[in-house]
Design goal:
With 229 residues, this protein is of the alpha/beta class. The chain is built from 8 helices and 6 strands; from the N terminus they run βααβαβαααβαββα. The protein has a 6-stranded mixed sheet with strand order 3-2-4-1-5-6.
Length: 229
């Protein structure tokens, strides 16, 4: 029996304090920045003419503040789900990336080189995060079959989900690039199969309103992992 096509419009949250000051914020609940408000307004305007039937969001401030902009232009309520939250960083929470390299050199290397095998000290593993999100998305797809569903979530969460959407192992997460804040990923689900239509697109952001393109780490990251593209 054929299933109805369900469309997922997945939005990464707008720039939050952790993104701006380069601190690890998984479950750390920081607000979006002034630039983040600009980004959220821009992505909401982009989605204004896109058919959306229902909006889901992680309950963290940065995702909810982003979702509220979309909710306003679409005239739809936001359904919060705890299982859409970012990875629980455990002892990494609130630490700067500079300090993480010094305090947790081995774990940091795994995070950079083999993120699929990473376990947050006293926190969540990447495998655990992916399974939590797969369970959440599977439930949403079942509940909202045939609808256009907007889901506001997080950067690391989205990378683990992309492995699932593309039917590849979590070890291939190194091939999934980080997307910008408020980037849009569109995926359809029909007859048990996912089709990625749009992957981390941030065309609604101009050069000044981008977050990652204006940060040194991103240039180094692209040169290291995607220089041959």
């Amino acid at each position: 029996m054929n299933s109805l096509k369900t469309k997922l419009i997945i939005v990464r949250h707008a720039e939050a304090v952790g993104n701006a000051i380069r601190e690890f914020h998984g479950w750390t609940d920081s607000n979006i920045t002034e630039k983040g408000h600009v980004q959220a307004a821009q992505v909401a305007e982009r989605l204004k003419s896109v058919p959306i039937d229902v909006i889901y969001s992680s309950p963290l401030k940065r995702t909810m503040e982003t979702a509220k902009y979309i909710s306003k232009v679409k005239g739809l309520p936001i359904i919060q789900r705890d299982d859409l939250k970012e990875i629980n960083g455990g002892l990494w929470e609130g630490m700067t990336w500079t300090d993480l390299v010094k305090v947790y050199p081995e774990e940091y290397t795994v995070w950079e080189e083999k993120p699929h095998a990473h376990q947050m000290p006293e926190g969540e593993s990447m495998k655990g995060l992916q399974q939590r999100l797969i369970n959440a998305f599977s439930d949403i797809i079942k509940k909202e079959e045939g609808k256009n569903v907007c889901i506001v979530t997080h950067g690391t969460a989205l990378r683990t989900l992309m492995c699932w959407f593309l039917d590849c192992g979590l070890e291939d997460i190194v091939k999934i690039p980080w997307c910008d804040n408020t980037a849009v990923t569109t995926v359809t689900f029909e007859n048990g199969r996912f089709t990625v239509e749009l992957d981390g697109d941030a065309c609604h952001l101009d050069g000044e309103s981008s977050t990652i393109k204006n940060q040194e780490w991103y240039v180094e990251y692209k040169n290291k992992f995607f220089s041959q593209e």
